[in-house]
């Protein structure tokens, strides 16, 4: 049997985001960043339950959603496998861009911003620049 891909789900019970959606979002992020590639096997529901102490039905619900979106496929008796990626080549092959973002993150942490603050700021800038609006 194929080894599961190197993805570990982190569940934040205080986030207000449904647990199954956290698994879906984290899987999509791994697909975008090239951590998961076509052919990779996702961890089994049992493996996810052991690592996160969540209900197995929650894992299965997340995997069904990913399957519905055409990102993974369940193979009876073998597991759930990645069908396609979401990443652009630039997301994984532009080290200078990643380094700049890493530096920005360090400066934001030093300024006292937490993950949610950084996410809100980044999304605000992303939204305003995608609309062609200048940001301050």
Compact summary:
With 136 residues, the chain is mainly α.
Summarize the helices and strands and which ones pair or pack.
Elements: H1 19-32, H2 45-52, H3 56-68, E1 72-75, E2 79-82, H4 89-93, H5 95-110, H6 115-130
Antiparallel strand pairs: 1-2
The order of strands across the largest sheet is 1-2
Helix content: 40-55%
Can you tell me the overall shape?
A: globular
**Mean pLDDT across all amino acids:** 87
Question: What is the N-to-C succession of helices and strands?
Answer: HHHEEHHH
Overall number of strands: 2
Terminal Cα span? 53 Å
Low-confidence stretches: none
Radius of gyration: 17 Å
Structural class: mainly alpha
Biggest sheet details: 2 strands, antiparallel
Count of discrete alpha- or pi-helical segments spanning 4 or more residues: 6
Q: Which percent range describes the beta-strand content?
A: 5-15%
Explain what this protein looks like in three dimensions.
The protein has 136 residues and is mostly helical. Helices cover 53% and strands 6% of the residues. The protein is built from 6 helices and 2 strands. A hairpin with a 3-residue loop joins β1 and β2 (79-82). The longest helix is centred in the last third of the chain and has 16 residues, at 95-110. The model has no long low-confidence stretch (mean pLDDT 87).
List the main descriptive attributes of the protein structure presented here:
6 helices, 136 residues, mainly alpha, 2 strands, two-stranded antiparallel ribbon
């Amino acid at each position: 049997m194929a080894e599961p891909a190197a993805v570990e789900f982190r569940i934040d019970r205080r986030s207000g985001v449904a647990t199954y959606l956290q698994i879906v979002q984290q899987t999509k992020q791994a697909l975008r960043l090239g951590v998961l590639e076509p052919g990779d096997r996702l961890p089994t529901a049992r493996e996810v339950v052991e690592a996160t102490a969540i209900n197995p039905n929650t894992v299965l619900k997340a995997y069904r959603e990913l399957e519905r979106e055409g990102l993974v496929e369940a193979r009876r008796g073998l597991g759930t496998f990645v069908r396609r990626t979401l990443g652009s080549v630039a997301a994984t092959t532009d080290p200078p861009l990643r380094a700049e973002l890493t530096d920005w993150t360090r400066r934001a942490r030093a300024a006292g911003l937490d993950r949610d603050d950084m996410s809100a700021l980044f999304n605000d800038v992303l939204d305003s620049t995608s609309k062609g609006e200048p940001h301050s």
